[in-house]
């Protein structure tokens, strides 16, 4: 599959005024009464929070001098810093000591919803069937396989993640690939959570953890050694490797956040040299696949051949293999104005396109080979995969087999458990093969949500003829609203609540956002959320600018000097939830992960009383200092996303919203749970400065919890995730002083 995505993520107008000066009468202004006075029953530790040392440090940039007495925390090997983190963990445990029973109950609820064993439906690749299987009582899956003609009991274990976890204590398995001849398995393991015949291509990172070099080795050769086939000298670019679906070519992709350059290697002759598809151009990306002597390319390049197209996104082009270095490629088609192409997947008899139409996800197949220079996609007689009418996410399955006529996808939404659908492209029909928590073979096929075989005509693009997806959950409501932001732009807001437990204007709630790298906010099904929904909580997702949206301008309008749009969108969504009575005015929490933690952190600086509580997980909050340090991983890449502080206008923009640089003094801030692992100093510095600067009493309800061994992805096992989530939820329930007698 052509990977149309950004690279590694941050755990990763000329002058913008400080956020603290941007006030508006439209924002809610709650009582300035101290949080601990508003919730007198809150139990606090008898000992005060840890106080880290301060070492004077100042830095002057573009005539602006900033003080940073906690800069020393950047040295994560400092014994004093490690001791401070242990003391913070002890304080966090003391703060949460009265929630032990609640946490046990939450964990029990969550684990009860997890099947004892989980088996994915087998997926065919050549003569083999592959599946993942989580045995009873285990945290992680096993990858197993069997020959198609063998008995069902003859499954062979290929890779056991549990054994890796036992060896290292923590594990994050990244890439896991089976060789085309099915004789080898290659996988990458991150044992510390740092994100750091047959020819094997792999990438090597530099001292800044940037993948910059591609190496090939023959795994069947005793003395062949490693050969460097590509090196990227531009520190703002990273390299990755993919192969065309038919296995005939390896593509080496050198990408920045907004630009890409593709080099092509003949898979049978890996040392015969590289061919560059096209010279890199700022802002231009391309991703290619191969079919029967042609390269098919998704690109946003504006060329003479695509002169009639004025869009910003991708269109489909092609060229003969021997003409890939030509300055002009044939245009197959350009999408209509309301269509945004996102990705493609190539097979022997068809091409699958992932795209959105008016903001809604869609997929279609187009028969191969296809003709070029068609005006519209409709001219290629696409089959639009039927999808549920409810808003949902659509993710591809493995789909390794180039010859297969069946395409597998996973559908999910906040109220639709993960559902695996097989679309038979040759018959233009589909079948539901698996749904989380249900055994398909045991279901009555007359029930409205299930159909063993729906044949559809070409005009059946959405839910007509599909299962009644909304019947999956009569207990929960999922609404999609549009919120007018500060400049009138409509921001999508997804709101989830229980029909039975929710109470208008009385229920507590949490608002979740991300808004970076053009990534869509994850709103897929999660059984752990049911514990909060059943207690009357509202869970809302704000798709603010900077994240994924219907078109590419949605991302751009929340980057660089326009980053303030993301923060304002988040604030206006918070106000909407309270104004419309979805949540109680004093019972709204904010949650941000990684780069998304910038949203609630900056919003709290602007309006400290807007939220009653916040959870910042591995937060990116020391934005200006991090972007100013070129020695840190991802910094140069992130200049395209957030701005380059070496440029004065961009420095002023970042300084205006950087959470660490805009903490108000002597005001009451919300209660906060800050979790840290990778880049631990950002969360630690933030908590230290919050405690130093804000209300003394309120700062006692700010806790820092550091996973001393886990990675950026948190606890990876399914049961460990329950414990981590239960801790988060118990914190919110405690500081909201909201308890349900359930």
TrEMBL record:
A Gene Ontology BP annotation from the UniProt entry: proteolysis
Outline the extent of the Peptidase S9A N-terminal domain. Answer: 49-195, 200-433
Source superkingdom: Eukaryota
Which UniProt keyword terms apply here?
A: Hydrolase, Protease, Serine protease
* An example molecular function term from Gene Ontology annotations: serine-type endopeptidase activity
Q: What does this protein do?
A: Serine peptidase whose precise substrate specificity remains unclear. Does not cleave peptides after a arginine or lysine residue. Regulates trans-Golgi network morphology and sorting by regulating the membrane binding of the AP-1 complex. May play a role in the regulation of synaptic vesicle exocytosis.
* Name of the featured protein: Prolyl endopeptidase
